[in-house]
Amino acid sequence: MDTDGFWALVESSAAGGPTCERAERLTARLAGLPLPEVLEFQLRLDEVRAPLDTPGTLAVAEVVLRGWISDDSLWYFYVWLVGLGRDAHRSAVHDPDALADHPAFRLLAALPYERWDDHDFPEWETLNYCAHYAYEQLTGEEDGLEEALEAIGHDSPCNAEFDEPVWTPEQRAARLPRLTALFADAT
Question: pTM of the prediction?
């Protein structure tokens, strides 16, 4: 599976419903593919998530989540960004402040944070497990995907790690002025 195939699967799974239903659709589609394609899907997910692992993406998450960031919530925010599709991913990597124009961000900003329910939070944890469950369905092996990844020398990351210093609140506001303004009144 190449990058275009990966994005086609992710984007085609977006046909309405909460992310848990979306993950079920994606898992079912993956389970209909040859086993090597399922492995490749996981490799592509790890590849597209890697460039999000920056202080800039952390800053976007801090703005959107009003500073309530944990290792897990940041990791799930990354895959939510992936779930928004290739264009949103490109913005997050190259021009994160442009995400202020994305409908998902505008919708979050319009809803008061204290009224968010589980479906409103920008996270898609279950995307991390779609290939795992599809691989298990195809092989009957609970840890089959992890073993297949290890066999090719691939270790899927499971936490954010930055090579650069985290942005200060002042740097965040200066580098993300549109996002900061969009979420400034959304309390």
Answer: 0.91
